[in-house]
């Protein structure tokens, strides 16, 4: 069961990164024809954060493979949800849909931050458990 979950995390990371490439290419080529400079900025920001956090998910999955007892679940789930809400809301606004959806963006950002803080906490906790 553990190996299946690990494989799903790696696959989800790869899908995130593939989608980031697709959306980045669309923003660079297809969106310019009808988007305002502000919309292009939102799109660029979403793609940038999508890549960073997609790579983070991949690194977490690898970390889990190297150190199976290292707890990554909260970080992985928080960052994935953060990608959906933060990047997703910026992409939606970049397409010209209601700006009110931008209210979701900070929630996604907070989830990303939670994922990183959980990783930091678990790293310290893991190191302490190894020292005992």
Automatic annotation (TrEMBL):
Record localization: Membrane
Name recorded for this polypeptide: DUF423 domain-containing protein
Membrane topology term: Multi-pass membrane protein
InterPro entries xrefs: DUF423
UniProt superkingdom: Bacteria
Main location: membrane
Keyword presence, Transmembrane: yes
Keyword Acyltransferase part of the UniProt annotation: no
Record organism: Acinetobacter rudis CIP 110305
């Amino acid at each position: 069961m553990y190996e299946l979950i690990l494989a799903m995390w790696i696959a989800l990371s790869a899908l995130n990164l593939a989608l980031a490439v697709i959306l980045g290419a669309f923003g660079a080529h297809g969106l310019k024809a009808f988007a305002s400079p502000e919309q292009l900025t939102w799109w660029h920001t979403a793609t940038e954060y999508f890549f960073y956090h997609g790579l983070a998910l991949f690194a977490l999955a690898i970390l889990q493979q190297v150190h199976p007892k290292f707890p990554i679940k909260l970080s992985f789930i928080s960052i994935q949800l953060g990608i959906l809400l933060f990047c997703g809301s910026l992409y939606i606004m970049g397409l010209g849909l209601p700006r009110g959806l931008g209210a979701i963006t900070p929630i996604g950002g907070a989830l990303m931050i939670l994922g990183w803080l959980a990783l930091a906490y678990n790293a310290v906790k893991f190191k302490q458990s190894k020292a005992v």
